Amino acid sequence: MILYLLFMLPAFAFVMIAQWRVTSTFNKYSKVPTNGRMTGAQVAQEILRSNGIYDVEVERVPGQLSDHYDPRSKKLRLSEPVYGSTSVAAVGVAAHEVGHAIQHAQSYAPLKLRSAIVPVANFGNMLGPIMVIAGVLIGLTGLAWLGVIFFAAGTAFALVTLPVEFNASSRAMAQLTNLGVVDRTEYGQARKVLNAAALTYVAGFAAALMNLLYYVMLVTGMGRRD
Question: Distances in Å between the alpha carbon of 40 and those of 47, 67, 224?
Answer without folding.
Answer: 11, 11, 57
